[in-house]
Amino acid sequence: MGSWLRNIQGQLSEFASEVLNEATEEVNDPETELQVVRKKLLEAERGLNVERENVEKLKKKIGYLEEEVYAKNLELDTMNEKYTGVIESRDTQIRALQAELERMHHAVQESLDDGDDDDFFPTNNARAARMRDEIDQLRKEAAHWKRLANEQSEKSDAFKISELERNLTEQKAKFENEIAALIIAHNETVAELKSLNQDDKDVNEKTENLGRCIEQHISESDIHREEIHFLTKERNLLLEKADHVDKLTFEAVDKVLSERIHELEQERENLQKQLDATQEEIAGKNSQISLLQTEVGEMHHLIDIQCEKFENEIINEREQSRAKIAELQREVENLQLLAKSHEEGKNSEESKMAETIEELSKQIVIWQNRAEVSESKSKEQARLDRELEQLRRENAELTAAYNDLNEDFENHKAEHGSVVTSNRDLTARIDALKANLIEYEERYEMCKNENAETVQQLEKLSADFERLRLSFETSRTKSASDAVDEVERLRTELDASKDDREKLRADVERFRSAIGIIDTELNRLRESNNRLVQDNKAMGASLDKFAEIRNMLENSDSELKSLREKFFQLQSEHELKEKQWREQLLELSEARDDAKRRLEECQRETAIRQSRSSDIALSAEIVELKSDEAKVTTSSEGTVDSNNGWEKMADWDATAPTNGSSSTNGSNNCTIMNELREALAVVTEKTEECEELRRQKHELNKELDLRQTCIDELMVQMNVLQSQQHIHAETFAQLRSWANELERDKLELERNLVHTKEKLKQVEEQLYEVKGDELVNVKQVDSIQQTIEEHEQKKRNQSAQHEEALRNTNAEHMNIIDEVENKLEAAEDTVNQLRQQSKAAEERFESVEKEENVRFLHINTQLMEAVKRQSELEKANCELQHKLNEVSTQVREAERLRLELIALVEQKHAESVKYHTQLQAVLVEKEQQSTTFATYTEKLSVLEQELKNCVEARDKALRECERLRDHLLTMEETSTMEALAGEERETELRQRIRILEQKTEESADSVTESVNAYQRQIAELTEELDFIKNEKVSIVNRLREREKTLADTKMALSNLQNVLRDIGIDHEAQMLQYENTVAEMRKNMENLNLEIAQFKQVQDTIEAKKQLLEERIVHLKEEITRKNAMIEELEASLDEHAQLAVASVSSYTIDDQVLRQLFMSYFTADKDKQPEIAVLLASVLGYSQEDIAKINAASHSSSRGWFGFGTSSRLSQPNVSLAEQFVRFLEKESLTTSHSLPVQQSEEVETIRSNVPLQCSRTSSATDLHSILNT
């Protein structure tokens, strides 16, 4: 837009300078005046064509931007559809899982209720059913409210989009109306020029005799024209430099604003994350809704009670009013009867009665009004009843909606991310549309200002033209001496302009130095911003890693806590078992001491009995010897059998009854000794078993010590982990401090940016001052340009060469820029590779964590198996203890039997036989006991093997723990190595970026060197200037216009700053709101924590399914990360498309070859018309040297006809001149139909609209112009 304005201003200044030049010259030839007027017309028409072309360009740009907006909207819609599909699939999965969980939960509750509560608590079943119904209703109500919220959000989004579209259409309509007004104004100016042309024709008839005087000044005017052409070139170069400076400043400002906008977008994303957290308030609001429902029920109850009271009061009032009305009517009738009876004699009382009647009638009216009021109250009561019914319906709907909300509450939790993303997309679209609207408004204001400036310039030109016409009329009376005086005056002004030029050079050099300083500061700011971005990325990655490590440590802490609890339980159990074993050992030791005492007593008794038996045996032998000597005859009958001991005892009993007791005592002592020996053997076996039990106890103590050592090692590991966690917390605090330092650096950079903005404002002010000086020089050049036209050919050659050189340098710069872009793309590829590697490392780390978790679970299972084995061993020990108790009982029984046998031995012989049989039974039992002892020994061997296996398993577990430690150490080392490698890569990338920046700076230095060379050439060319005209009045006017534009821009900047401040205030208010909501949510979280403490009892049944859900969540997160990567790629492709589109729009050029060919055919076809517009066409279209030579040749060949045969050609001209036909052609071209902005049309229609009419317009305009020129 700025270049377009400058082109228009240059054309208008050229037109004004030519008019002034022609006015200063004393023109007497009417043909030359006509030629001048035609030149003016052509220049005005050329400016109009340029303006139309610029308007068409702006329309095309608007259409292209609208197409981009539409395409982006389509892409956003497709993305929204994709994400909604993904979210719906996830919702279905979550609902299915929730249904399964609820079914399982209900099944468990039903089983529990059926097993426990059906017989004892029948009221709980009814309460559970009622609670289920309430839960279903609340879920339905929640779904209803959710549906209403979604519909309202969609309606609000559609309403916003419709409002934005309406604003766009209004802005477009305003722009088209203003363009139409400009066209009308231009048509009016063309009509005025036509009237001036007719006046000039009248003047031409009078000024034929002035041609001779003009020929003398042609040579001087040629010299002046050459100098003016030289100055125009210098002027153009200065304007190009100013444009370049403007572009640099605007680019810097745009970058600063874009960075600020990016920061605001990041803040908005953070706020939207906080909004995500605010959606969790629904849980608290559900309770509030339930409370509101209870309050609504109570209010309904109160309203019903009040309605009943109100109805009763209304009925009572109606009955009272009716009774009063009846009484009053009766009184009225009585009074009327009394009035009729006393009418004749009591005229004085009639007035009183009338008054009373009137009062009564008034009271009747009052009561009737009261009755009407009561009826209205009854109607209002009916209306209130209807409203109550409506409220009840609404309450029912609210309850249903609450039920729906409760049903989809967890779905909302899953969907809040999608809602946030959709809200984020909508806000992004709204922001984009707002930005487009702001751009359109700015462009509209710029166009409006430009159009106003053009109108003012046209008015000034018309006033200048009138002034020149008057001066031309006055110049007729002046003589040639006035021209000489004017030339001298111009020379003096030229000297003054030289001084101004030197000042301007000094200002330009000062401005260049300021621009260099600003460039260096901007480069530093860019480097610092890039570093900050990289540091932020690194910090984000480190924070993510720290969060993962923290989660791992928390998990490990929880697991270690559970292990600690289990170990403490095991310790307590072992202590209890040790106590039990000690008690058993004490009991066994006491039993052993008792047995030893008994054995000692038995030994004493046996010794006494043996001594007695030996004495008795000696006495018996003596008795036998005596009997043998007395009875020799009976000696053969001494011994019959080997087994006649019992017969001897019987005979001995018969012969010597006094000695029977001694013999029986001897046999009893033998049996007792045998029993005592057996008891001793049993006691020795028991002692051996006790020693074995002691040995087992010692081994178990050793195992307990080993396990205690394991526990101590685990505690040491726990302490190490806690120390690591403390270290990580310290690192996290360091990272936070680092983040705070980065924020401080950001604030300092923002301050530096503000400082640079202020410097940019100062530079802009300097620019405007320099531009004002340039405008002074430009207007001075325009004043002299009328006298210098022949020097333009040489300067055009030089300008062509200069343009070729510029093109070559631009091509070289473009190649360099392409190389830099390729390098940047390669750097981006490497960055993407690094990101992929980091992702792969994270995946490996996650897999290692999973393996470690699996191994840890395996170790836990082994520990549980060991505990089970230990419990089995304890059971076996208990069985052995039981068997020992049985053996002790058996020993006691044996002792009891021994006592019985002693009693039986003292009895008769028959009882001794029975005792013998009982001894045999005891022997059998002894054999059984020996077999049981053998089985016990076998079991003890088996238990020893199991203990060995347990020891081996423990050793294996310890080895696996050591291996896991080694593996963790290796993983930490590998992670540190990868981090170091990543840092090295980052340093390499930063070095590459610095090298690229150095290359760009070198390219910028080469550009500055070329610019300096061009400036030197300009300085050399400016030394050839000699004469400049003083037009300070016009310069002051232009400066005022520039000041106005500056004021407008300052106002626009202030408006933008106000808008930014308002946005900041809004953000602060939103932040306060979000903080309040966060505080409320924290309160709600505390309440929820209390509820969670209640729900932890149910958590044990859901842990298995929770693991499956967590695995699915991990899978979904991976899908989300992939889709985020796809989104980033799509955004990058969108940015590339946008850049290509902007490049295509910026490189758009208008094809003028057709016009050149047509005008060339015109010049070559009709030689009579060549002198009229040859110079104007050459200056407008910029032909090559060959074309200019042809035009000059044609003009020289037809120059005789200009002066010699001017009158005949003028008389032979038709009524409609070529200039008028050309003006009509331009009017026809200017009357183009305005196209509507396609906000949401299809792309095919837009491409057809943007391509076909342009071709048609070009062909039609070319044919019309060709026909005009041929005529």
TrEMBL record:
One of its GO terms (biological process) is Golgi organization. The keyword Phosphoprotein does not apply. The keyword Disulfide bond does not apply. GO terms for molecular function: small GTPase binding. It comes from the Eukaryota. Keywords: Coiled coil, Golgi apparatus. One of its GO terms (cellular component) is Golgi apparatus. Residues 41-68, 94-185, 254-514, 546-605, 673-703, 732-851, 940-974, 1004-1038, 1071-1140 form a coiled coil. It is found in: Golgi apparatus. PANTHER family: MYOSIN HEAVY CHAIN - RELATED, THYROID RECEPTOR-INTERACTING PROTEIN 11. This is GRIP domain-containing protein. It comes from Litomosoides sigmodontis. The lineage of its organism: Eukaryota, Metazoa, Ecdysozoa, Nematoda, Chromadorea.
